[in-house]
Amino acid sequence: MLVVLKYVSEKRIVLVAVNPYKDVDLYDKSIYKLYRNGNVRQLDPHIFGIAEEAFSSLDQQKQNQSIIISGESGAGKTVSANHVFRYLTQACAHRHAIDSLIIASNSLIEAFGNAKTVQNDNSSRFGKFTRIFFDDRLNAYGAQMEVYLLEKSRISYQGKCERNYHIFYQMSTARESTPLLKGFNMNACMLTANDSKKFEETVNCFKILGFKDDEIREIFAVLIGILHFGNLSFSGEANNKTAIRKNSANDLNRCCELLGLNEEDLAEKFTYQRLAIRREVVHRQLNSADADALKDGICKYIYESLFRWIIKKINDRLSEKSLLLSEMNFIGVLDIYGFEIFPTSSFEQLCINFANESLQQQFYKHVFKLEQEEYVKENICWSFIDFPDNEACRLLFEARLGIFSLLDQECQLPRPSDDNFYNELKNSKQCQESCFFKLPPIAGDEFLVVHYAGTVKYCVRDFVKKNLDTVNESFNEMLRNSRLLQTDSCPQLQKSSKRTVENHCLL
């Protein structure tokens, strides 16, 4: 729960709140009625006040409204977003049951997209922009969600004292499949008593949102299949043919059974990679390290496809009552990762922190730049405020020879590497001339960016692999043709492509 502190500007468009990490009595029905029926501008600052301002502006201006919720990890962004959703769905004239559907969808997505981190036991590891659509009479007729930057690497690796996504632990308490947690560095001792209760809530949310029993069973089959897939281990040194170890035979059998794959085909795919070079197909032998990397990539690929399929099903349910959402105005709520600073950060943090730089620029623009421009138009006397501007930091990422551009260029080469990318960074004029880019005293594979919230050290290891984000085409074909993944009640795998950060959607 959040304790409200104050509004930042006279227009009351920015609210600052702090998370006390304890329950506070600020959000009951009496408080809701106070802000819904009273004069918001005469009441204390409150998240309900922001929601009411957006709702009133939608009614008066007949224009789309957006509420951006930002802050560091653990600040309470998701809780704030949920309070906004509850307020908006209660405030509308006729809800069409959209309120219960939105609440259920948020809880369901948390199970698949949230995880325990060092800073937050329920950290959102993706960004979400939710639009609630209203007609001219302020009836809520539907909603749509867009998701961004799912942290797929968490599927194959978690830091010390962190967990994989909640759903794996919820499922394990319910299905007594705790031994499966040995995959992905997942430790059974990190199960909590709350996981079993949350699993029941997750299943209930599936049913509220209209998922069929067959679909729910297939979703869990895919999840358990991913766990077995992650437990595969390989033998074979640099110059020897790779093979799946004999002690992985049961995991191989189970993952193929659950995902509808052929055992022999799957085992063969880990021995070599098929490449198209100059219109000829050649086979490159894989070593155990190659096979491990390929295994991790496939697990991430399947999980992301499952996640996006669930989002699509939720969106279908949230909008099934109306085919005219495109003609309606909406109030949008953005809930995205907070700014992250770790001892050494990677590609995921680079994308997250760039997104937060963009949000911070919106803050500067609305609180300082636009208000002062309004003063000029109205000939109001005031002392000019020299405010910080992070546009130069954003250009470090977005410029023609900025960080993202250099990374994309490296990924287009026949043999891209992190070392080559790092050398390009060091020699880039854009980076050399930027006061926001620094190299450590002993340059190896790290660089520093001076963000608005602090200086962050990034390590370039695996930048190229994470940016390419591809799956071996022969694996992709096999997955698309699997017996399970072709059924109507099962998540369809998204088409693999050579996706780079240039194509990622960042607000």
Describe the structure using short key phrases.
single chain, 507 residues, alpha+beta, Methane Monooxygenase Hydroxylase, Chain G, domain 1, four-stranded mixed sheet, three-stranded antiparallel sheet, 15 strands, disordered C terminus
Number of helices: 17
Q: How far apart, in Å, are the first and last alpha carbons? A: 26 Å
Which fold does the CATH topology of the domain at 347-461 refer to? Methane Monooxygenase Hydroxylase, Chain G, domain 1
Structural class: alpha+beta
Note the quaternary state here. Answer: single chain
Low-confidence runs of at least 5 consecutive residues: 177-187, 503-507
Order of strands in the sheet with the most strands?
A: 3-12-6-7
| Name of the top-level CATH class of the domain at 347-461 | Mainly Alpha
- Rounded to the nearest angstrom, the radius of gyration is 25 Å
**Outline type:** globular
- Calculate the mean pLDDT score and round it: 84
Would you count the extended β strands for me?
15
User: What fraction of residues sit in β-strands?
Assistant: 5-15%
Q: Which bin fits the share of residues in helices?
A: 40-55%
Largest sheet: 4 strands, mixed
Instruction: Specify the CATH architecture of the domain at 347-461.
Output: Up-down Bundle
